[in-house]
Fold this protein.
Amino acid sequence: MSRHLAALQERLQQQLGVLVTVVQAQGSVPRDVGAWMAVFADHVINTVGGGRLEQDAIEAARAMLAGADALPQTLRFALGPSLGQCCGGVVHLHLEVIHAADSAALQSRLRQSGPVVALFGGGHVGHALVRVLGELPFSVQWIDSREAIFPGDLPPNAVCEQSDPVQSAVAQLPAQARILIMSFSHAEDLDIVAACLLRQRVQADLRFIGLIGSKTKWATFRARLQARGFSDAELAHVTSPIGVPGIVGKAPEVIAVAVAAQLLQLGD
């Protein structure tokens, strides 16, 4: 999560902190293994689940900060009546003092990686979607045929690529990539979809092919792709329109949230 990592890096330059990490989780718990929180004397960054669990973890972390040379420790929390929580699971939290010198290592350690999302298109929705995905466990490859279309302040989990012709980038994507197609040109969109379907025909290794647009746009694309020799079974690999149903609104940010939710539904 880039926002939290940036805040952690800035705060560590000013004061010591304690990193609290979920290292083991059993049963029903609020956060999974790997979730973290940084506790400072007067500030907290991120969360390990909230409630009494987090309150007790913060108190333990600040007790470490108040002590001299506090050693790392792992605490066990049963999420039952004694904590005023009814989740019923068990969480183990590891606590360790962190310093400014640890900043670079922590950035690498805590940065989430995840499935690759190949986003074709640097328009308004593309920009909004990269901002949303910057807070989610994905690795984003942002691709456009135009130069100087990408912003300078990218999330750490995103990289940019200028590709002309744009569809040539499809062959280089890793297996199980999730592909989102929303370029500035319907002609480019069509060529990207065709390249994805050709790859599926040969390798069958793309996790998702999503095309932005209306049902009318997809009907037109279907006819054109059929004319290029793609079967109905092959065309079934394409999801269009994209985004979880039921979310009303056409603002780029609304579309971005709907599409990001759809990607999360795919799982790993």
In short: Residues 96 and 262 are 36 Å apart (CA to CA). DSSP finds eight helices and eleven strands in the chain. The first helix runs from residue 2 to 12. The chain has a mean pLDDT of 91.
